[in-house]
Amino acid sequence: MTNQKGKPLLTNREREVFELLVQDKTTREIAEELFISEKTVRNHISNVMQKLAVKGRSQAVVELVRLGELVI
């Protein structure tokens, strides 16, 4: 899925974070697996929620699946 300018909706890192999130990984586990800080994980999640105009992680996941950005 791409936006109006032809760029992908999610960055590679945002996609990685959400792929781990749907595997029921905690923020800490995602941070450790991707070698980034927990704050960076939260920032990626927050950025995606902002892009999608949703209010929570679960809403973001539902919307990403609906858009075909995430397969669960």
UniProtKB/TrEMBL annotation:
<dbReference type="InterPro" id="IPR000792">
    <property type="entry name" value="Tscrpt_reg_LuxR_C"/>
</dbReference>
<dbReference type="Pfam" id="PF00196">
    <property type="entry name" value="GerE"/>
</dbReference>
<keyword id="KW-0804">Transcription</keyword>
<keyword id="KW-0805">Transcription regulation</keyword>
<dbReference type="GO" id="GO:0006355">
    <property type="term" value="P:regulation of DNA-templated transcription"/>
</dbReference>
<feature type="domain" description="HTH luxR-type">
    <location>
        <begin position="3"/>
        <end position="68"/>
    </location>
</feature>
<keyword id="KW-0238">DNA-binding</keyword>
<protein>
    <submittedName>
        <fullName>Response regulator transcription factor</fullName>
    </submittedName>
</protein>
<dbReference type="InterPro" id="IPR016032">
    <property type="entry name" value="Sig_transdc_resp-reg_C-effctor"/>
</dbReference>
<dbReference type="InterPro" id="IPR036388">
    <property type="entry name" value="WH-like_DNA-bd_sf"/>
</dbReference>
<dbReference type="GO" id="GO:0003677">
    <property type="term" value="F:DNA binding"/>
</dbReference>
